[in-house]
Amino acid sequence: MHTHILFEHPLNEKMRTWLRVEFLLQQLSIHLPLNDHADALHFFRNMGDMLDVFERGDIRTELLKELERQQRKLQGWSDVPGVDLNRIEAIRQQLKESGAVLMAAPRIGQYLREDRLIGLVRQRLSIPGGCCSFDLPTLHMWLHLPHEQRDAQIALWLESLDPLRATLSLILDLIRNASPFRRQTSLNGFYQDNGDDADLLRLQIPLKDRLYPQISGHKSRFAIRFMPFDSENGLVPERLDFELACC
User: What angle do CA 153, 155, 157 make, to 5 degrees?
Assistant: First the structure.
């Protein structure tokens, strides 16, 4: 059993979107290959949620801006004595290549939006039980096709997301590794500090304390209030040690 729980909290809207997309990309692969109706609905629901996220903003533009920002940060590190210049250059090259692939790729999610089956299922997901076989015979028939045919179709859907997946993974890895965890102490369940233009808060909390964080704030300043998992009988210690990284 894990002795600590990791919580991540975005401090701006772009990071909120990226974490949601990362979560949805992970969910798309959890139940593959699709063996039954429940697995298929899980897959299509997450696919529909991801398309909804794409439609709320230009995620490609934000990712390209972030690639440029990360390159500028790496350029600054190049002047630090003792830094591994080969490693810096290798990461910069990764950023350039990722940006070129993302720029050359079609509009993110366009291939999925144009797929007839995804569109049909997406329309019915908002209706309780709306994906029954009599409501959605197309999905019912698709689920009875040979595994190989369905797997090939799913592979094409997921392949269309590869430029997004690769760029997002690279950016989030760099952000998460930008700051180490440091031990902090909350008093009576409360902690606040300056964000120093951070994008993401990462907290490691001992599982034994049965506490979770409620976080408010933005990149300049944030506050954390620790709440008991058992709201009626749980207790918040006067002093709580936890690990915090402002990334």
Answer: 75
- What single DSSP character describes residue 114? T
Residue 212 in contact with residue 229, Cβ under 8 Å? yes
Alpha helices in the chain (DSSP H): 13-30, 37-54, 59-77, 85-104, 110-113, 116-124, 137-142, 147-159, 162-176
> pLDDT by residue (tens digit) across 172-226?
999 999 899 999 999 999 999 998 889 999 999 999 989 999 999 887 899 999 9
The pair of structure tokens assigned to 139 is 């999905």
Question: With b meaning 16 or more CB within 10 Å and e meaning fewer, what string describes 107-124?
Answer: ebbebbeebeebebbbeb
pLDDT band (50, 70, 90) for residue 73: confident
What's the rounded Cα separation, in Å, for the pair 61 and 41? 30
Q: CB 212: neighbour CB atoms within 10 A?
A: 14
Cβ atoms of 32 and 153 within 8 Å: the answer is: no
- Residue of 175, 171, 185 lying closest to 246 (CA atoms): 175
